[in-house]
């Protein structure tokens, strides 16, 4: 096996995936940034969840919101439910695994808040029930998805924003989603704090 060739191939595939995302995603990313800004400017918060490895990306997004990316600035209101181990275990034990996010959203979510979802598998019941609970609480959804997340796509309403990376392969999808997260944070900072290049 030629490791140098394998390394080159991985980079080339990543560059190609990023180019494809650049051609299709900017309008959805811009809309999501405006929706999130509107929520924060009105006193709302962002509740973040994810399934599988998407839970790490949702946690990363909430961390960047609470802390910062490159520019020094005040923290922004975000909660990550995917990392709340004690709550997840208690709800799973006392109620059902399917309720791990929806029960927390019902308790914490308010009208005008945003549910930020990273879902790359569509048949995950906790994600589906979370979206339903968010809609019941009059929250909007910003969802980072892939073609496999068909059930998530079907649940989003016209008031929601889906940023779908139309690629196959976990690595390529996550790389593009990571770029989307960085861009969203940058656009939020520009709107909230007037930052420019």
**Count of extended strands:** 5
Walk across the major sheet and give the strand order: 2-1-3-4-5
Mean pLDDT, rounded to whole units? 90
Can you tell me the residue ranges where pLDDT is under 50 for at least 5 consecutive residues?
Answer: none
Beta-strand content bin:
5-15%
Task: Supply Rg.
Answer: 17 Å
* Biggest sheet details: 5 strands, parallel
Residue share in helix: 55-70%
Order of helices and strands: HHEHEHHEHEHEH
The termini sit apart by 43 Å
In short:
This protein has 197 residues and is α/β, with parallel strands linked by helices. It has eight helices and five strands; from the N terminus they run H-H-E-H-E-H-H-E-H-E-H-E-H.
Key descriptive features of the protein:
197 residues, SIS_dom, alpha/beta, 8 helices, SIS_dom_sf, 5-stranded parallel sheet
Please write out the topology:
Elements: H1 3-24, H2 26-41, E1 46-50, H3 54-66, E2 78-80, H4 85-94, H5 102-108, E3 114-119, H6 125-136, E4 140-145, H7 150-155, E5 161-164, H8 170-193
Parallel strand pairs: 1-2, 1-3, 3-4, 4-5
Helix pairs in contact: 1-8, 2-8, 3-8, 5-6
């Amino acid at each position: 096996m030629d490791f140098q060739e394998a390394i080159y191939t991985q980079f080339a595939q990543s560059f190609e995936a990023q180019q494809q995302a650049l051609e299709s995603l900017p309008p959805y990313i811009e809309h999501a940034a405006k929706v999130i800004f509107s929520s924060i400017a009105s006193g709302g918060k962002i509740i973040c969840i994810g399934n599988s490895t998407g839970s790490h990306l949702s946690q990363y997004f909430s961390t960047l919101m609470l802390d910062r990316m490159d520019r020094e600035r005040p923290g922004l209101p975000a909660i990550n439910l995917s990392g709340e181990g004690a709550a997840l275990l208690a709800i799973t034990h006392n109620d059902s695994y399917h309720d791990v996010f929806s029960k927390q959203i019902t308790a914490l979510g308010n009208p005008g808040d945003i549910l930020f979802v990273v879902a790359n598998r569509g048949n995950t019941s906790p994600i589906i029930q979370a979206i339903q609970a968010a809609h019941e609480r009059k929250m909007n959804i910003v969802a980072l998805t892939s073609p496999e997340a068909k059930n998530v796509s079907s649940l989003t309403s016209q008031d929601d924003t889906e940023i779908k990376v139309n690629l196959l392969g976990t690595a390529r999808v996550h790389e593009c989603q990571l770029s989307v997260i960085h861009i969203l944070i940058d656009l939020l900072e520009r709107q909230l704090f007037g930052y420019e290049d």
